[in-house]
Amino acid sequence: MAAANRLKFDDMIQNMAKYIDEDNDYLVIKAKSKIVENLIRMGKLSLKEIADIANVTIDFVIAIQQKLSTDK
Predict the structure, then answer these.
(1) What is the pTM of this model?
(2) 56-66: per-residue pLDDT in tens?
(3) Exposure string (b/e) for 1-40, b if CB count within 10 Å is 16 or more?
(4) Does residue 67 lie within any of the structural domains?
(5) Phi and psi at residue 58, in whole multiples of 5°?
(6) Is residue 6 in some structural domain?
(7) Residue 7 Cα distances to 15, 18, 27, 58, angstroms
(8) Distance separating the N- and C-terminal Cα atoms of the chain
(9) Is residue 4 assigned to a domain?
(10) How many domains are there within the chain?
């Protein structure tokens, strides 16, 4: 029964995805911000590598980096 419920949930998510504007969705932006923040804190990747991994612009990464430096 749990597997059937999981399949229904996966179908619902896939159906919802076509209505979500990834570039402007609050939860997507929040998740990408957290990913970028974690990668910056690791300190092992360049800004370009972080941007490529998170599928964001370098300006987005720089903004997160600046926010982190002012939060210290």
Answers:
(1) 0.72
(2) 999 999 999 99
(3) eeeeeeeeeeeeeeeeeeeeeeeeeeeeeeebbebbbebb
(4) yes
(5) -65, -35
(6) no
(7) 12, 18, 23, 37
(8) 49
(9) no
(10) 1
* Within a domain: 40: yes
Residue ranges making up the domain that contains 67: 21-71
Neighbouring C-beta atoms of residue 53, cutoff 10 Å: 13
pLDDT tens-digit readout, 38-51:
999 999 999 999 99
- Alpha carbon separation from 41 to 28, 47, 65 (Å, rounded): 20, 12, 9
Sign of CA dihedral 19, 16, 21, 27: positive
| 16-27 confidence digits (pLDDT tens) | 777 777 778 888
CA angle 9, 13, 16 (to 5 degrees): 140
